[in-house]
Amino acid sequence: MVESNDRARARWAGIWYLVTFATSIPALALEKPFLDGDPAASVAAAQFGCVLEVILAVSCVGTAIALYPIIRRHSDARARGFIASRTVEATLVVMGVVAVLALVTVRDDPGTPSGVDAALVALHDGAFLLGPGLLPAVNALLLAPVLYANRLVPRAIPALGIIGAPLLLASATATILGLVSQVSTIGALAAAPIALWELALGIWLTARGVREHSEASASTPVAVS
């Protein structure tokens, strides 16, 4: 019963991971022209991007809830930390959505004080930097070592997360310090391993789930602090 429940939970987690991919990239593409102040930008497109980001936020929390019972057996602290980190990430995503929706209203009001437009764009950019731009590294540092140590999925998958997390942390920190721009080639390269880790994990969990208990009994489970 535990095995079948774990497989079902893992598959739900995989589906949620794939939903994050299906929503995050299109959402950014739909919102960016509007945020950049392009006169030809579609307000409706930006609003649809906001809808996708709300789905993204729900999916972030969904991955953590689905994996929590599985990860808790190996590290309660990391399981709780993963829930917290994903929830904070989702909160920051929603904060960015609020900024975009407020910007839609502000740009329709000719009486809006100067500076409000720029402040809302800055709020969105800051929420994006700290949420999808930084916290996936924290998520990987919490989750990937447990998956790797206990061989719950093929080790090559969490290895991507373990390698990619420091790169993304360094890139996000450099952006916060103003050393690189938020959208840059360096940033894209630094984010690539984490993106691959989440995509590969989503595909594997959806297709195969986690290693069965009977397989795990062949080796001693490793508690990861």
TrEMBL record:
It holds the Pfam family DUF4386. It comes from the Bacteria. Keywords: Membrane, Transmembrane, Transmembrane helix. The chain crosses the membrane at residues 12-30, 42-71, 83-106, 126-148, 160-180, 186-207. InterPro entries: DUF4386. The keyword Transmembrane helix applies. This is DUF4386 domain-containing protein.
